[in-house]
Amino acid sequence: MIVEVEAFARLHMGLFELGQHFGRRWGGVGVSIKQPSMRVTVNTEGSEKVEGVDVEEVERVVTTLSRSFGREFKGGISVDSGIPVHRGFGSRTQLRLALATAICKAMNVECEVHSIAEILGIGEVSSVGTHLFAYGGFVVQLPRQANRTGLGSFIRLEFPEDWWFVVAYPVDGRGLDEHEERRLFAALSPQEPLTCMEISHLILGYLLPTLLERDLTGFGECLSILQRLVGQYFASAQGGVFRMAEAVQLLRMAGAKGVGQSSWGPAVYGLFGDRLEAENAVSEVRKHLGDNWNVYATTTVNHGARVSVRP
Predict the structure, then answer these.
(1) Lower CB density within 10 Å: C or N end of the chain?
(2) How far is CA 36 from the centre of its chain?
(3) Which ranges form a coiled coil (predicted)?
């Protein structure tokens, strides 16, 4: 049996409720994008080897699943990953979920995505990537009770596929890994109550309504405000509201309706009303940033990871 899983990158648009003022924490916002993406292939008849990715990471997933299910997986694993690591696209979450989904299919084990995430310990802080792997679109992860584990509740909406993002990141830059992120959160003070309330108000009273109404200008404006407020909280840890402030400013100057940084970056993005606007912005931004940056246009994905099975 051959199982293929195609998973997509995500743009993480910010965390909220970082103060636990209501006994809850870790809200988040994000959207699935078509590019970059990855493909994981599992072949139960293939030789037992791993190709195309960090072998240790794959072995950890295989070992964890084997222990959980009481069955050992045997077969070949190939990963064709176009999602760069530690750039702000959630590559590790997508790899682990795609691999685990493929293995479960190959072993005829019924296990839905959110159960897989809990088995693998995914989503301690943000579960946005897990929800997007399962459903795609636009997700708001709702803050969960501080003394509880698990992925918690979320809101999922369709995202207009005629809205485009321009994404830019330096070829050699990198963001934080999970261990660095954990240490940083432990060192940060709780977010001020008024800021927590302002961000929650923005999301409920502005971001969600403008998305439902397909109000590009309003959504983009709200996104920029949200990103500024979230970035101010992390500014001391990442060297400013945005790690790549020049690139964000170039996206604004190119006509972006909204701008932001995905997760810890260094990837940044701008929101545009159509493909032509986005492609023109790519040319303009690339001209200023040079060859050491990847700059491209992409739209969104309103479905989860794609799974195909062949005998």
Answers:
(1) C
(2) 11
(3) none
Instruction: Set out the domains of the chain in order of their start, with CATH numbers.
Output: 2-310 (3.30.230.120)
Interacting residues of 278 by C-beta distance below 8 A, sequence separation 6+: 164, 165, 166, 272, 297
Helix (H, G, I), strand (E, B) or coil at 40: strand
Regions of the chain where pLDDT drops below 50: none
**Rounded to the nearest 5 degrees, what angle is found at the Cα of 151, between the Cα atoms of 85 and 101?**
60
pLDDT (tens digit per residue) in 60-104: 899 999 899 888 888 888 888 789 988 999 999 999 999 999 999
d(CA 257, CA 211): 13
Place of tokens 């709702």: 142
pTM for the model stands at 0.91
